[in-house]
Amino acid sequence: MKNVIDSFVSLGHWPSAGSFGFNTDILATNPINLSVVFGVLIYFGKGVLNDLLDNRKQRILSTIRNSEELRKGTIEQLEIARARLRKAEIEADEYRMNGYSEIERKKVNLINAASDRLEQFENAKNETLHFEQQRAINQVRQRVFQQALQGALGTLNSCLNSELHFRTIRANIDILRTMQEITD
């Protein structure tokens, strides 16, 4: 501060040619010039600076309000999306459980159908076996009967006369016809 005062008081540095001159001491004149410039800026620029700061403040507050509204809207949309997600998960679980139940039901139906077909095949096999057994038994009976008949005829031919022989043959033919009608 002493340098500033000395620059005004000390006239030894002032040129002698006139009453007005330039002070060439930079250290002494620079703070004065800066203080004058700052004073003028503060005095005239105060209103402009306040307006700029107020406008900036209003824009910042408006941006904050808009951000808050957007945040609230986003939170609401997030809650709606979460509710939809929960609903979709519940529906997916229901479809999954229904699908598993449907698969199990179809599996049981397929097993039952296969069991029924197997039982039908078994019944058809048993019927075929029974039929073949009966046919074989009938064939054996017919052969045994034919052999017995031939043996009896041979015995009768050797023991009987021709009239008795013809009567016996007719009786046997009648018996064979009735047996054949029964089996057909």
UniProtKB/TrEMBL annotation:
Topological category with respect to the lipid bilayer: Single-pass membrane protein
Cellular component, GO annotation: proton-transporting ATP synthase complex
Coiled coil: 71-98
Keywords associated with the record: ATP synthesis, CF(0), Chloroplast, Coiled coil, Hydrogen ion transport, Ion transport, Membrane, Plastid, Thylakoid, Transmembrane, Transmembrane helix, Transport
CDD domains according to UniProt: ATP-synt_Fo_b
InterPro entries to which the protein is assigned, alphabetical: ATP_synth_b/b'su_bac/chlpt
Chain's role: F(1)F(0) ATP synthase produces ATP from ADP in the presence of a proton or sodium gradient. F-type ATPases consist of two structural domains, F(1) containing the extramembraneous catalytic core and F(0) containing the membrane proton channel, linked together by a central stalk and a peripheral stalk. During catalysis, ATP synthesis in the catalytic domain of F(1) is coupled via a rotary mechanism of the central stalk subunits to proton translocation.
HAMAP family found in the cross-reference section: ATP_synth_b_bprime
Protein name: ATP synthase CF0 subunit I
Organism: Ravenala madagascariensis
Gene: atpF
